[in-house]
Queue: 2 jobs
Job 1
Amino acid sequence: MLLRHTPKEIKERSALTVNPAKTCQPVGAMYAALGVHKCLPHSHGSQGCCAYHRSALTRHYKEPVMAGTSSFTEGASVFGGQANLLEAINNIFTIYNPDVIAVHTTCLSETIGDDLTQITNKAKEEGKVPDGKYVIKANTPSYVGSHVTGFANMVKGIVDAFPVNTGHKTNTINIIPGYVEPSDMSEIKRIASEMGIKTIVFPDTSNVLNGPQTGKYDMYPSGGTKIPDLIKAGDSKATIALGPIASGPAAKALDTKCKVPCEILKLPIGIKATDEFVDRLRILGGVSVSEEIKTERGQAVDVITDMQQYFAGKKAALIGDPDQMVSLAGFLTDIGMKVRHVVTGTSGKKFEKRIREAAGEDVNVKEGGDYFYFHQLIKNEKVDLILGNSYSKYISRDEDIPLIRFGFPIYDRVGHQYNPCVGYRGAMRLLENILNALLDRQDRDALEEKFELVM
Ligand code: SF4
């Protein structure tokens, strides 16, 4: 009963967050940077911030995450961090030889007012950036936004730095996959390739944060979008951005910069959202949907049909990132469950409207909310299932409600790196997890005479 002091009575709170449902912007910026091949993220602030950003990713992926830091001291905190960043850029290219350094700010450097554009330009003028190497950047103050906005800002930083419109359009479609797992990025690429469509997917953390054990440490794994591809993204005929919050800003920036028209879709979690993604691929690519993809869809729908009696009417509470929550709420509603509470730690005015469109008007929704409020909602109306990240386990234990780990971060399980939740295969995996949780609970609570072999 770790959270036994959470009261049931909900009072209006505006100035206090209790157990935030988000992490800070640089965590997302660092994750996005790892999706560029041979890129070393760099945290412009104190060592403590960088240690936290790296450990958040390392604990989630169970992989070492490398990043540099400007290592602010008291002096840098007062007089600005320009000297530290210039020295860091010089050292990193000399010692670690990345192709790209992706610099993001922290609360401290933002509060001082360090100007990344001015500092990185100075680094180039002083010859600290070797030919053919790049320094990209994103402003990621953590007193606003969350890891999702940090991710969005760094993906926009990638767009600001690389794509070029040469005037020769190609038949390629850019896909910005959103703040999803490496396994999801692989699955998005597989679906497009299965349909015979040439794509440039960026950022792409597959084979960076879910690579195989080879017995040999490689500071820059084989994955990540390569720089020539990022440059060519400016000549693609269209961009599909998955998730308006995480991918929308970069897609719009690419449209403005290189005249690549963009379509912003939901994350393809669940049947309907995946249908929309596959259909846009079909239309933009001028292809037919392959038999393999049709079979996968049919299998997912078959599971829902066969087991719908176990899903029907079951109440769910969801907590996580906004793009994920919208698609997940829609999917659970489509399979007959009742989505009762949805909370995201990321602020956004349209969140409530999008959730109500996905799950109906009769649902408790909160943007910029926290775990304390989420727990209070559950205390006021019990649910059968919680879907959220590892921090949800305290509420799950206190309220004796099954938890399906979903989203970021997941510190206490593996599998999310390797098994997707997007696409029809991802929908099958989610269905399996949901069904297992519901049937395990039914078995646990069944009277002896009602204990069933076949369910
Ligand atoms: S000080 Fe700001 S940037 Fe650093 S870890 Fe804390 S929230 Fe993140």
Job 2
Amino acid sequence: MTLAQYCSQFQKIRRANGTAFSDLTLKKAPHKPLLLLAVLDMVGRKQITSPFISIADEMTELNALFGSFWHKLMPVTHTSSIGFPFSKMGNEPFWHLVPLPDKTVTKELIDKMSTVSQLRQHVMGAQLDEALFVLMQDAQSRETLIDTLIGTHFSPEAQALLRAEMGEQDTIFQYSLELEQQAQHKVRDSSSVAKYTVQVRDQGFRKAVVRCYDHRCAMCGTRIVTPEGYTAVDAAHIEPWSVSQNDQITNGMALCKLCHWAFDTGVVGVRTDFSIAVARQIGHMPNAPGFIPTLAGRTLILPKEVHLRPKPENFEWHRKTFSVA
Ligand SMILES: [Zn+2]
């Protein structure tokens, strides 16, 4: 199959009509083209490196991209699981759902599945046509495929919104890579600060830190990634950005919401040996501090790679400010 033939298939993608869909998406469901745009972006960044898209490994990033495109076009009240288009795309000629051993994928099953949890009971992922994947890897062909999807399935206004969002997401990804490279080479390039917007810095820092900590809270160890790819952790600055302007991974930790709040408010602190200290007064009635007191004396759970771990001196501001540790 040629590029022209795949462009033709992309133009013919079947999309449901619905009153929920506005002029932006030409009054049709945008799920499938948005998922394909996310896949194309990930192939371009070499985050997808084979024609097989696993619903275990690639879902967090794919869901984040799909969600960022979706929210540009759809009202906040209208949500969608990425499992819906991932499954329905199985009816398109270039997207082949790969069943788990001893399972089969039928049209009835494709029509029935709409969440990633349901998908995981039946399939391992999706296999793209080999020829399509080769085209997706080539920058020029990829651009043609993106142009076709955006030009066919969205209004001019939506096209501009999607283009802008794709550019923004690409910059966020590049910033997160820069932070990892700076950690690798133990350098700090302060020029990044002026180069990027607040949103890019926030999201790029988050992406890099969450990836380095593999979604695990450095304090309590909570690691939850939902089937859809949502993670329980934030990226916390150790010395706050407002004080340090320091987005280095060595000034970050992945923390769950409660541990993040506890750290930012000085309810917990970190000693020079990376052990955790807990403020005594939080146990006073009528507080019910949950698991927080159990963190006392525990050691932070840090990345295996030494160069990604926090610099001990980055905790000094926190120690001086809160006097917990
Ligand atoms: Zn936690």
